[in-house]
């Protein structure tokens, strides 16, 4: 696959006179793709049923005729104000029951049937007009599902949808009462219509109630999306794409991705480090202008799985953004590095967000490739450089990673409902494990629980809350090393503790007899290096103890190639554990200088310097924000 | 009194087939008591008026026939879902006016008359059936009143109840306006129906308005409880008990306790240290797996007063819990130590919570004596050890403490409304003073303001916001040393500053001329040792200055045996003050190693090692979580 | 001008028998003014239309006959409870839509027409009775507009007022859509009645929408005030005053001040340091009992501008207050120092708040000149000392300051809506610059953007978000040095980024190409001293670079006497920048010991020691809380 670049563009924001110039400049920069349309509903349909698509025809033609391929967005993330008059109850409600009003974006409840029909209607209108258009080469459905905390809505529509969903799932309230353990505090129901949404309860609601509501809500996102893909499929042969957000776990992307052709995500490394990542203060300062050195890679690997191998960056941060608590500017070179890193992870395309900085409205401080006065911003030259470089580079041939990393959305819902420790987060646990693998120079494939694991010398599965017997057997029988835990298999399908107690892995005699969460400042010291932090489990059983705590409790137990990890390792502990297991698994761990990260394709090892200082690697010096590749 | 052990059990959570085995195992463990029923309303009355008590008959018989004594709970903390249909307005409202919905527990407003009648009804049903039952040896009314912040409700029922209560108290709005000082900001009322609940005001409401609402709300808890005790009294001769929570000061436990026979409390040392105690970070880490070394003792002494000498632990933490921000596991031995400490403070019974860990619902991560798979959890053996030890020990004979410590719920309401310093808390002030007395090896009796003080060589009364003349005279004339202050007597019955100014103690010429609250990081240094922190007062008058600040202001003034303390001493200052006063009072202060605490009965001095290291005491080594007793 | 002192008094709080004694004691203390009446509406009009002003007649006569001049307040900050029955919809709503209930003060929505009419009615009643009264020498309108966050209300009255205001401003929704950039996310409106208030939107609302709502809300405060001034003007010749709060920027004080004769403000140095000022922890501790050494001066200079030269302190902190998170007592001498500092800045009068501490209601812990038992509190003697000293001193003759400091309320609205960095605050930026000028010994005049700048050797204008061409030209052509920036001119009238890009100053070729916000712990190091913190800009252009960052970017660029500052200097950087510019501007910078601040009148240089240690200055020792003046 030969990677390409693109950009997000809003013709409706600019005078028609400059469209052609913009298009020519995009082509000059070496861009292939231009994404348009996803927020333009009022321009497409200024009043209910009164369409105005002539401007869009001209925009597509102008861009296409210049040589660009158009990604056309359905505008359903921004229903017009008149839509609220038509469907006054389509607005979502927040956890406190407040209506989330019109005036920004994503102002709709996924459960609302009326709005789903409207979404299908506008998708049909666009599909009929542009489905076979020569310049429209891909579609984006909606925009950043779940962003702004919109998956969970506590509206009337959600309430009634949830009751139906429960009735279909459980068939009887008796079955539901049993599954949820409602006997616990006399919480039993006689009728599905007695069941409320799990907000505003006197103290915390039943976690099974919450888990089902999260499952229901995830299903609504998928159903909402499917209404549009079902509409568009007969009307176009072009790939259907959604642009997912970073660290967004409120719906099952694997399920939603199954209805699409390509996964894409919106990569804002500096914004994400500021607003949604746990990192120690020293790292937050060191990587202030580069972003976390592992978070992008993790998402690349995740969305490659979501897209079943096909994935893009739909929005790539080009400069300072506007929406994080603090918004520093990237180091010169980062807009190049990020793009190349995505490509090394198999991205088919990387689109910068956005072409020209908008001087007005919510994102007026969000940099683009151009400044508001149309002068080139720093990232334009970097994009042009990447464009030249990928042309020279030629085909990027993907390779299977060294490590399979199992990832599960439901695990986040389970632990988010009952974290048991205030700083326990599934994603954080995943990121810590992923970071350790990356520090060791490994290339990783993130996979769903049911993925084929053939060929992987190492499988890592921390925090897989719910594991069925099939999965356990597959892991136990896997032809390679497997690290499971902590907390893996700790819940059954109903979110309750299974008996026999976890992890209950075939062939591994180890039982978690109790667990403890550990506050900041405390830890459970391990024997050779590092500590368990945040979380520690006490194990019983006859499995071999590969690693102990200083208090002489098992920290890692092993049977053959199957390992169970009984806590949350800190950095030193993770590094030590990988050194214990990787050689046996036949994996070579490269010692990398701080800030350097590598990624292998079938033909090359790429190295990316996230650090603020130059580093030596394989005989050359890589400057800050620099990258280098060598043949494998 | 020969102490006994017990356990909390939920037959309705488990198959009937295992009840007998469970009961036999409880007896084997040496347990005497089993508490059941308090959350089982839907099992007792699945539909309105349709009773099903046969299972409860069988459960009581199974447990009783095995040799256990049953404590039967009224299930009023968990009204069934159908109750909400019957009384839609029975749900409480939070301070922002939101309904606190069904779906967990304690979902009722104490002011709701209809629900009070339902509570009487179910209490009557249980009383008539089990009041004279051979195996029912005690009753628990409801469960953990006020838990989950449920004392204050901003519902319609509360509003109308509050207006009536005010009308009865004040008879006229003129009287109310005068008492509250409503002239201050033209807040006068002409009619009791104009008075709203004191939430959501533009800026802070009149503190007198809030104080009366807190008094009203406390009265409703007491009235709610009394409806049940009045119902049960004619139907049973067995003791009536309530299980109070830790650090719960929103209603007057002394008043509520007067309607019961025994006080009990739910002791979760590790959970409480994590979620509701101020302690410096080093202490929080040192005592992470033991709990605060003084908080249990304080509550034991408090609830002994609430129970007029008769008190239990109704729920004793056995392992990690689920509800605190972090939930570490107790050190091995703590489940024994905590029980023995309660016994040394005079507990008649200590019941562990709970028998078997529930794998489902809200508390699925809360340890029991058994694991969910019925295997013994670590605390089971500790409980069995305590059972053997108390049998060997024989009678525990209580003795009057060295120190009388006056405690007052209203003081917390007053200072909670107008703390004057963001970190001023009555309970924290009390705990700091209590800790100092314990570090000095003293045994303490906590007492209400009107208690008989005869025989006490030292009386301590910090923060007694409201003191009437009788109390002042009793303290001034007390035959022993008395430490009053800070802030004692600083408010009158209406919550206003009294004139003459405080403390206005007979025979002590000292007037608080102004006060200051002190932020963290600042302090008022004392002359010989330590500082005032959080709070400092400026005194005028001719009383002897026993201790000065470095700025030459009186810190402790004295007339005979009566002392007034003009600030909040830190640890070093408290230790110094006790060394100044105790010898004169005829009290011997034992020097204890860090982490060790002692408690005297009439015959023994018990020592408990809360530290994580072994300590030497009286020639022996006490290991961490160890205890020892010597004859007095 | 010969300065005078006064006090705030509430005759309605005290028995009539003591009024005369109080008045005599005020006169004895040397006070001239007594402010009364502003919270006494229920005493003036106990029931709708039923007036009782006889007590007020007697109070005014008692005070006046004793020799005091009365400032009479209109009581509109505290509408009686019956007013809410008359106008149930007059209450404001908070940002979450909740009604802000009766029970404290300021419980009204500025947009409510009915309440405006009531305000006019009571002002007319008072004006007709006391407008020509021999003892009434000034009027106070309402009390502390905006206090308790009351400018913005999300009520029905505000919604309807806002729609009308928008319709008048924009004439068509097309114009509004263009101005706001509503095309951005399909946020266009077809009808003004579709426009909602900008609260509770799904994610952040359009900043232009918010900015207009802030402008509208500011206008309502001004309109509300004008209804009263229009009513009183024909009825009295005495000056009309309002008492503004500290750090209150939600309405345009310059506009409101234009309808009044004198500006006054309520100065609580210790409360403000605790509750509303950014300062490093060391400074917060050093100045705990003195207040920030620059914040009072800044407000004095600001309100002198608001009052077009005529200004008072209407409420001067006399001792500990009740409303800050922590409320330490002032050092002895501060009640004198604060008064003299105000006088040195040109105050005509300084009134202490309050005469006698009220023992009841919300402010019962707020010190007065007297204690609740009528004994003198420490500040009484200090007030008397000031009274004697100002009598001896004679006339205070104001002088133009060395520096003109441009201040703009709208800038705070703009940056408050889109700070771009979580700790970016316009006021904080202003205070940091002001502090630097004060540390350098300069006297400052704060001025609105349209003020005459003639005679100023230095003009400072940080963060002037919106600058029109006239202002830019005036600054460029100013006959003296001018420092503009950071962020000055960064927005147009609609709150959007202007093109050409900022600062776009005549004659200065410098363009801000991008900006970055910087989190705590990070900084942009400057070449010679200090750093940019919080904010840094990247400049392009040919202007001379006067100061660079260590990364070799322009930090300060200059053309002639016009400087643009491209970041937020820390303390060391500000001191360095002033040393670069002041000599060229012909300003002498005095080296002051820490904690000492100076202020010049036409005849004297006054020095105030805010430090907790004595300092040497001009050959004498000034003790803590001490002051000194020398001839110029
Ligand atoms: Zn986006
Ligand atoms: Zn409990
Ligand atoms: Zn005030």
From TrEMBL, chains A, B, C:
Tree of life domain: Bacteria
Domain Beta-galactosidase trimerisation: from-to ranges: 402-587
UniProt-listed Gene3D superfamilies: 3.40.50.880, Glycosidases
Entry EC no(s): 3.2.1.23
Record-annotated Glycoside hydrolase family 42 N-terminal domain positions: 8-392
Catalytic activity: Hydrolysis of terminal non-reducing beta-D-galactose residues in beta-D-galactosides
Record-annotated active site: 144, 315
CC annotations in GO: beta-galactosidase complex
Pfam families for this protein: Glyco_hydro_42, Glyco_hydro_42M
Molecular functions (GO terms): beta-galactosidase activity; metal ion binding
Residues annotated as binding substrate: 105, 143, 323
Sorted UniProt keywords: Glycosidase, Hydrolase, Metal-binding, Zinc
Chain positions recorded as Zn(2+) binding sites: 109
Classification via PANTHER family: BETA-GALACTOSIDASE GANA, BETA-GALACTOSIDASE YESZ
Family of the protein in this entry: Belongs to the glycosyl hydrolase 42 family.
Protein name: Beta-galactosidase
Species in which this protein is naturally found: Boseongicola aestuarii
Lineage: Bacteria, Pseudomonadati, Pseudomonadota, Alphaproteobacteria, Rhodobacterales
């Amino acid at each position: 696959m030969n990677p390409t670049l693109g950009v997000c563009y809003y013709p409706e924001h600019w005078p028609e006179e400059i469209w052609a110039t913009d298009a020519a400049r995009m082509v000059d920069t070496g861009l292939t793709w231009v994404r348009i349309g996803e927020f333009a509903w009022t321009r497409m349909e200024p009043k209910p049923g009164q369409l105005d698509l002539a401007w869009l025809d001209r925009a597509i033609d102008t861009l296409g005729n210049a040589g660009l391929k158009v990604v056309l967005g359905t505008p359903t993330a921004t229903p017009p104000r008149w839509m609220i008059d038509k469907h006054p109850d389509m607005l979502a409600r927040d956890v406190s029951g407040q209506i989330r009003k019109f005036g920004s974006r994503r102002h709709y409840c996924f459960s609302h049937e009326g709005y789903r029909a409207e979404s299908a209607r506008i998708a049909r209108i666009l599909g009929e007009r542009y489905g076979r258009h020569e310049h429209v080469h891909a579609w984006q459905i909606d925009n950043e599902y779940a962003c702004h905390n919109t998956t969970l809505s506590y509206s009337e529509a959600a309430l009634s949808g949830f009751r139906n969903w429960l009735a279909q799932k459980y068939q009887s309230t008796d079955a539901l009462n049993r599954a949820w353990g409602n006997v616990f505090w006399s919480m039993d129901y006689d009728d599905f219509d007695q069941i409320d949404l799990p907000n505003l309860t006197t103290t915390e609601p039943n976690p099974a109630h919450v888990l089902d509501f999260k499952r229901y809500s995830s299903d609504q996102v998928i159903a909402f999306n499917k209404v549009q893909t079902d509409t568009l499929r007969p009307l176009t042969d072009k790939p259907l794409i959604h642009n997912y957000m970073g660290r967004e776990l409120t719906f099952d992307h694997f399920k939603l991705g199954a209805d699409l052709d390509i996964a894409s995500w919106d990569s804002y490394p500096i914004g994400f480090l500021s607003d949604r990542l746990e990192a120690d203060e020293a790292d937050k300062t060191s990587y202030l202008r580069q972003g976390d050195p592992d978070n992008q890679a993790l998402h690349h690997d995740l969305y490659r799985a979501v897209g079943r191998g096909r994935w893009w960056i739909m929005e790539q941060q080009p400069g300072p953004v506007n929406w994080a608590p603090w918004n520093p500017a990237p180091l010169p070179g980062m807009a190049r590095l990020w793009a190349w890193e995505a490509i090394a992870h198999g991205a088919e395309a990387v689109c910068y967000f956005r072409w020209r900085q908008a001087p007005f409205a919510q994102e007026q401080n969000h940099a683009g490739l151009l400044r508001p006065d149309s002068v080139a911003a720093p990232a334009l030259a970097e994009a042009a450089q990447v464009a030249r470089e990928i042309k020279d580079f030629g085909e990027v041939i993907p390779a299977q990673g060294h490590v399979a990393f199992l990832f599960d959305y439901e695990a986040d819902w389970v632990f988010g409902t009952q974290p048991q420790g205030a700083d326990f987060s599934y994603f954080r646990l995943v990121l810590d494990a992923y970071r350790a693998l990356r520090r060791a120079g490994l290339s990783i494939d993130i996979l769903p629980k049911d993925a084929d694991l053939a060929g992987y010398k190492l499988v890592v599965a921390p925090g897989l809350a719910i594991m069925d017997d099939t999965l356990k057997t597959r892991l136990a029988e896997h032809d390679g090393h497997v690290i499971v835990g902590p907390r893996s298999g700790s819940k059954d399908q109903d979110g309750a503790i299974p008996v026999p107690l976890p992890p209950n892995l075939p062939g591994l005699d180890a039982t978690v007899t109790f667990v403890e969460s550990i506050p900041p400042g405390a830890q459970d010291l391990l024997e050779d290096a590092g500590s368990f932090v945040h979380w520690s489990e006490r194990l019983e059983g006859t499995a071999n103890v590969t690693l102990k705590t200083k208090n002489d409790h098992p920290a890692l137990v092993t049977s053959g190639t199957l390992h169970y990890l009984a806590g949350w390792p800190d950095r030193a502990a993770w590094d030590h554990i990988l050194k214990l297991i990787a050689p046996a698994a036949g994996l070579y761990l490269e010692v990398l200088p701080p800030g350097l990260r590598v990624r292998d394709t079938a033909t090359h090892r790429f190295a990316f310097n996230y650090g603020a200082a130059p580093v030596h690697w394989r005989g050359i010096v890589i400057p800050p924000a620099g990258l280098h590749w060598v043949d494998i």
